[in-house]
């Protein structure tokens, strides 16, 4: 696999949405927009009862923001537009009336942790360590922060946001509530994810829709909140500190 993509398959009322990018499944703006559109359409599709969100490849689930696009941001407006891509995907997941199961096969960083936290039920392998590296770049997990804080609490989110150079283990993530289950292999994970999705399909769709609204109560202002957070990130990415940091990663 060399070309980025977002694709969807629907079988037995389960929509599987998969994204891929050759740079460790990082997320440039066009992939984020396709992901948003695909999640929204799956939520509106009466044929779909449950959604599985996954990434391609065997190793990294998601490396977060596209480094190439970060380097090329030249003004605050462009920066805000880029970070708004993550905000729109999170809000699409939040508003989707179907339960979204996260399938996390490997390490996930930054925005990828935000995606995992925005699923309704997240399952992972023992290789799925997490890291919020934004502060190391002089930015901060402003856009994904609300989703992560909602899932693991302010203390947990603060810990990994401040300790920006450390990968935290899947066991830690499970203890904090990000992962519901952790499996020994990708094969075991895939079997468990499919079985769980199939079981959810036996439930009343209306009851699941009402439950999802209940679980996300209190996030009704996130359209505005995440847009404000994207503006902060878009401004900070232009700072001299961040520009210098990004140069060291080239």
Topology as a string of helices (H) and strands (E) = EEHEHHEEHEEHHEHHHH
Question: Which CATH architecture?
Answer: Alpha-Beta Complex
The strand count comes to: 8
Q: What is the CATH T-level topology?
A: 2-enoyl-CoA Hydratase, Chain A, domain 1
Structural class given helices, strands, pairing?
alpha/beta
Mean of residue pLDDT?
Answer: 96
Biggest sheet: strand arrangement: 1-2-3-4-6-8
Beta-strand percentage range: 15-25%
Compute the number of structural domains.
1
Structure description:
The protein has 10 helices and 8 strands. It is an alpha/beta fold and 250 residues long. It has one domain: 2-enoyl-CoA Hydratase, Chain A, domain 1 (Alpha-Beta Complex). Helix 3 runs parallel beside helix 4, helix 3 runs antiparallel to helix 9 and helix 4 crosses helix 5. The model has no long low-confidence stretch (mean pLDDT 96).
């Amino acid at each position: 696999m060399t070309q980025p993509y977002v694709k969807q398959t629907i079988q037995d009322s389960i929509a599987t949405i998969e994204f891929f990018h050759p740079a460790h499944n990082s997320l440039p703006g066009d992939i984020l927009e396709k992901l948003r559109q695909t999640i929204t359409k799956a939520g509106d599709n009466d044929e779909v009862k449950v959604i599985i969100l996954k990434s391609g490849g065997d190793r990294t689930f998601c490396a977060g923001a596209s480094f190439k696009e970060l380097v090329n941001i030249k003004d605050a407006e462009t920066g805000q537009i880029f970070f708004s891509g993550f905000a729109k995907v999170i809000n699409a997941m939040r508003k989707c009336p179907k339960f979204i199961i996260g399938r996390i096969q490997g390490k996930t960083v930054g925005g990828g942790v935000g995606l995992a936290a925005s699923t309704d039920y997240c399952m992972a392998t023992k290789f799925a360590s997490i890291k919020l590296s934004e502060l190391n770049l002089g930015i901060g997990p402003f856009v994904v922060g609300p989703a992560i804080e909602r899932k693991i609490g302010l203390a947990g989110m603060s810990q990994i946001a401040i300790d920006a150079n450390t990968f935290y283990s899947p066991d830690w993530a499970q203890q904090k509530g990000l992962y519901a289950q952790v499996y020994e292999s990708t094969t075991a994970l895939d079997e468990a994810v499919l079985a769980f999705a199939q079981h959810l399909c036996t439930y009343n769709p209306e009851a699941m829709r009402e439950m999802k609204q209940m679980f996300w109560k209190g996030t009704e202002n996130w359209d505005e909140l995440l847009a404000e957070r994207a503006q902060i990130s878009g401004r900070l990415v232009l700072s001299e500190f961040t520009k210098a940091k990004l140069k060291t990663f080239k």
